[in-house]
Please model this.
Amino acid sequence: MKTTQTFCVRFIAIWKKGNTEEAFIVARITISKKVMDISLKKTISVALWDSKRECIISRTPEAKQINKFIDDTRYRLMKCYQQLLLEHKVVSPAIRELYRGETKVENTLLGLISSGI
Model:
């Protein structure tokens, strides 16, 4: 029997501690009911965040840049998910590493030769 995984990417604003005016943007990834967060290291004004559309509701150049960054991040995460599925790897922990560019060297003879050890 073939099992299927569910995959969802949402962007949320998490308030800064001690500051109700600003928030961090976080990508919340859900894979088969397992949740992980990836910080985008972007700070926004809470009043400008639209949680339904998952974007900033301002027309300033900075807001447009952040909204484009959110769209690009969503695309990259979807691409990472598809790549991991094609490689038949466990998606949950590996998607964060693949998104950040953290790759592990395989402990094979070919991996050791290519790393110069």
